[in-house]
Amino acid sequence: MKVLKLHPLMTISLLQMQIQRLLFCNVAVYVRNSLANTFDTLKDAGFEEDVLVEFPIDETLSLREFEEEVEERFNFSLELCNKDNKPFMNKSQHLFQIACPASDWKTERDYQLDISLDMLKNNNRQSPQQNMW
Residue 61's pLDDT is what? Predict the structure, then answer.
């Protein structure tokens, strides 16, 4: 089972890398109908949780259903895109249908993603009230 891990201090670019690793596609993230800055955090984008959230991905969902579920639950919008960053036109296509060989995506980014997620997770456990300024 694939699990999307979301943390309020995670950047949009880290979310994009995670989507690439899990679903083998690109993603555009929108905040209030505007394209989000890659350096914005999920908290800036409207994510209301205070801790790491593990969100299981149901690969039988259509692209539209997945995008709507994320928006409804986490208060920001996603648009899944192909490798050329063009939105998929067939939103009734299922998530499992967009998968491509993992070798097409850079594996070095997976390592960076794992380290970044671990750092967010561990930082949150050690000092949840830490002031970031």
Answer: 96
